[in-house]
Amino acid sequence: KLAGNGEFALRLPSALMGTLLVPLAFHWGHRLGGRGSGLAAALLLAANPFMVWYSQEARMYIAAALFAAWSVLALDDALAARRSFRWYILTTALLVYTHYYGLFVLAAELLVLAALSLRGTLPWRRWLGPVGVLGLLYLPWVAFSTRIFFSYTGVAPGRVDLPGILMAFWQHATAGPTLDGRKAMALTIGYTGLALL
Fold first, then answer.
1. What is the pLDDT of residues 94-128, one digit of tens each?
2. C-alpha closest to that of 177 among 80, 59, 53, 30
3. 61-80 and 86-98 helices, crossing angle to 10°
4. Would you tell me how many other CB atoms lie within 10 Å of the CB of residue 40?
5. Which of 174, 170, 100, 176 is nearest to 138 (CA)?
6. pLDDT tens digit string along 152-164?
7. Which of 127, 140, 48 lies closest to 89, judged by CA?
8. Which string of DSSP letters, residue by residue, matches the chain?
């Protein structure tokens, strides 16, 4: 009611979530490298064109970014301070229900947890329970989305060029949307080489 029922009201949740990401970035930076790193992280996030753009959209992307950052922070808190996994379960459930790509964040977290357990620094039983709870929380969405996935007719079976899609995405992410052809490919190759280095 405070925001009304127009375009402003539609975009307000994204703006609030994007704003919440700034102190979260400060907290992460401060934790990893002190106050200066925290300020730099907050400034970089606040000035990031993607974050500003998605903070103005009435879509789920900025919510996914917020829940992803919060999920990783909650996991770090649970591991570092030997706290409960409650916040981790909540934030990760919000993440995977917000966007399918949240499953990639969860997969990365599971790899870290498994690596810590294989090294002997984290008992398996400490994190398998919370991850099991997450799995149970996600089951209703799996049942719902599986039905949609197998009935989707937008793309004919066997017609999806996944390597081509991934290459186009990587080129767009590295060279930007305005370059194409040889210049874009050269910039993409150079960026990829720097990233690997």
1. 999 999 889 999 999 999 999 999 999 989 989 99
2. 53
3. 160
4. 14
5. 100
6. 655 555 566 777 7
7. 127
8. --S-SSHHHHHHHHHHHHHHHHHHHHHHHHHHH-HHHHHHHHHHHHH-HHHHHHTSSSSSHHHHHHHHHHHHHHHHHHHHTT--SHHHHHHHHHHHHH-TTHHHHHHHHHHHHHHHHHHTSS-HHHHHHHHHHHHHHHHHHHHHHHHHHHH--SS-TT---HHHHHHHHHHHHHH-SS--HHHHHHHHHHHHHHHH-
Identify the sign of the CA torsion 145, 146, 147, 148: positive
Amino acid (one-letter) located at 88? Y
User: Does residue 14 contact residue 55 with C-beta atoms inside 8 Å?
Assistant: yes
* 48 token code pair: 């990031």
Residues in the chain: 197
